[in-house]
Predict the structure of Transcriptional regulator, LacI family.
Amino acid sequence: MAHDDTSSQRDNSSVTLQDIAAHAGVSRSTVSLVLRESPLVAEHTRDKVRQSIKALGYVYNRGAAALRSSRTSTLGVVVYDIANPFFGAMVAGIDAALNREGYVSFLANSEDSCERQRRFLERMREHRVDGILLCPAEATDPGLIDTLADWRMPCIQVLRHVGHPPFDYAGTDFHLGVCQAMNHLVALGHERIAFLGGHAEHSATRERWHGYRESLSRHGLTYQRLLRATVTRRDGFDLIQRLMSETPPPSAVVCHNDLVAFGAILGLKRLGLEPGVDCAVIGTDDVEEAELGDPALTSVATHPYAIGEEAARLALRRIANPDGAREQVVLSPRLRVRQSCGAQPRQAAFPETPTPDRQQYTPA
Amino acid sequence: MAHDDTSSQRDNSSVTLQDIAAHAGVSRSTVSLVLRESPLVAEHTRDKVRQSIKALGYVYNRGAAALRSSRTSTLGVVVYDIANPFFGAMVAGIDAALNREGYVSFLANSEDSCERQRRFLERMREHRVDGILLCPAEATDPGLIDTLADWRMPCIQVLRHVGHPPFDYAGTDFHLGVCQAMNHLVALGHERIAFLGGHAEHSATRERWHGYRESLSRHGLTYQRLLRATVTRRDGFDLIQRLMSETPPPSAVVCHNDLVAFGAILGLKRLGLEPGVDCAVIGTDDVEEAELGDPALTSVATHPYAIGEEAARLALRRIANPDGAREQVVLSPRLRVRQSCGAQPRQAAFPETPTPDRQQYTPA
DNA sequence: ATTGTTTTTTGGATTGATCCAAATCTAGAA
DNA sequence: TTCTAGATTTGGATCAATCCAAAAAACAAT
């Protein structure tokens, strides 16, 4: 039996400030001040109170504190696909940043459903969270952001944004990312480059498409194939097969995310073609699995962990200063060249970099 | 400007039960009963109150309610690696099950650090969560479970368990999973089968190892190689190379999880060997990426989404009935045969099953 | 000893709901 | 009409903290 009663408190944990106060021979208010590390309390008193707190096994009741002070030290986080490794990393970043400040977060998975998203946001309001990190579901009504503002609820949009500026936002420069991929392919001599995936419903897609079109015209390329679609592996698999049967077929494709790229690679193999040789493939996100494929996937690293950290920090800033100027934190992505774009020889080697996406990014 | 004042409430959201009561011409208590859908209230009164609630734009204050009722409709969830796709899926399952019951969850990532785990659990106690879903960090002191019991905090262990029965637990039958993999390999004619990865610090590893050893003796195999290690891709990569240089080398390996298996496949390629032909590889978890590899990874599916759902449901049951008999929900895993074990021809095809791990499991 | 500052401490009000025992209002029976 | 059982409704106490203005204590200067 592994535990013994180190602290000698009674059975139930209903020890309150009042009890501590009585035990230490001071008032409720003084104990409260000690708990909040107020400098008003004399050293000597502080010690006495601390001892009583320990002796009685007191547990701070944040609910009660929140009721009076209307600060819950709590945040709501909404993502649209927590099962996607990208969001796993992002949530880890959020968690790390919040943890440092004593905050905790509610997490919900909207599955890109506006209805689920709305329900969760309402629940968060009832829980009086101090703020919300929102990766808006596709087709989110731009008015939602105004509604949150009406609620006086600090809201940081992440990765995608809807509504009109100014709003708080943390994300990555998708436009730049696509340009990096395009530049690389052009430098390798490609002239027929297609873009796979995305709806037009949100900023993250528009930015990518804009980068694609702009790159085409900057390099004077006339071949243009932009295939709209959802962004699953299945889509990549189907789209690439359709595309390769056209005349002429593309010599390279840039994909909305790594999932689409994985699907595209599989599709090429199905056709008996060699990815990176018969058609170059570049993904977006650089999820950990990218380096494991065969061929390893060239991808635009979007640093989810860092985005999570930045978003959380921005939220804390906004909570501390609700009426401050809105901020947009846009990180710069970075192209990670591997085999699937044909630039490197195919050889199975374990990648050198330990955890590439934690530190290597540049705020724009 | 997308929003207009549909509901005509004033600027600030400090509408309380008192205000509703005044507006509807009833008492605070009655309004409270209406909000909680009590059958005590007359139909006619209920309608009147509902109208006032809508008219004034009232927002329920769960914090205040929790203070009096000591029910927060809130759960704490601790995982040790949220960036792992397995946990992404599991969290999605938890979220879905809780959402149906109006619960929300705090999520924290212990990163397998007992210190972080402890801090989070204490914070959850301060927030008065109704219960906790805990995937214990490695080397968690078994006394922790007793401590939580002292706190009278319902705690469901997930995936791993520490301490002595009885305790609440939701997970998968790792022992059976390894046996399935071993049986399959033996049926294919393998006689030299190694096991890669795992520490002895927790149940999930012990169960796997037990399955490995038991299978060996049941099939009368004398070759035995069980390599302890952490469970990253890097480990799989290193271990397989060490193993293949022995005389004789194994003809097949079963891996602690899919990450180790991915590493092993990469390691074999590095040696110029063909996974599935020169050495069969089987993973555990069947993460979505398993089917994408080349060769596609044969893996023991452990149904993370389903485990998450079951764990959450068990938690809700325990909260409703704190002194009921402890339960252990153990799902049966299922071997998904692909190319890496050499049983199927290598051919790139998009897998048929849409989302294999949501429904196909059997409670043991 | 008196006064004026500065440092600590304090009790009462407040936050917004729920709980509970008692009050009030039905409708049917005597 | 009166009584009573059952259905509704209610006000005061309570949950456990924070806020705030004012009191008390400590200290320095006159």
About this structure: Chain A touches chain B through 71 residues (CB under 8 Å). Chain A has twelve helices and 13 strands. Residues 26-30, 33, 40-42, 45, 64, 66-70 of chain A lie near DNA strand C (CB under 10 Å from a C1').
